[in-house]
Write the structure tokens for this entry.
Amino acid sequence: DIVMTQTPSSQAVSAGEKVTMSCKSSQSLLYSENKKNYLAWYQQKPGQSPKLLISWASTRESGVPDRFIGSGSGTDFTLTISSVQAEDLAVYYCEQYYDTPLTFGSGTKLEIK
Amino acid sequence: EVQLVESGGGLVQPGRSLKLSCVASGFTFSNYGMNWIRQAPGKGLEWVAYISSGSSYIYYAETVKGRFTISRDNAKNTLYLQMTSLRSEDTALYYCARHGHNTYYFDYWGQGVMVTVSS
């Protein structure tokens, strides 16, 4: 199974600050034939279902603010929020869809100071 | 608007069975792979099972293989999860989630249905 490791487990930042969170996979998520990374990011706000933010490591979903930036390749990935807003309070999960079983990281909880 | 509405959850004793349903609307259900994903109270996300659009391909997490069965009825726009031999560790919020078209990330999720396994 591909193990997804997210760090940190929690982070507290002030509104307007930049935040980065990491996701590392135990094997490469880069598919050589199409040069795509099979990595997605989800946002789960308190009491809500997860919401897809980013697919293919860096493609923002329609309607997702451009302050959410996904980057990385192979085994190392990053989600950056360029200027955190109060409504970004949530747990952020990465997920690999390179192979079954589909696996998630344990999440990074973002708290607003 | 894509909607996924789960039902069928509740309190069940260990060793008993339960069947979850997820009714889909707002898209052509028969064109998409579907999944069940669960989240134990206060914990992270765990993928449970996948079924392809035409039911040709089915995959399970090892933790539920042999006990859970995923199925779908495209005529009724409904996804199912038959759960048997339930254990306390199956206690979770169960989400129905759609795969993106021709890919395997989850682009829409239901609101979830709670399953509690306890005597």
About this structure: Residues 54 and 60 of chain A are 4 Å apart (CA to CA). The radius of gyration of chain A is 13 Å. The first strand of chain A starts at residue 4 and ends at 7.
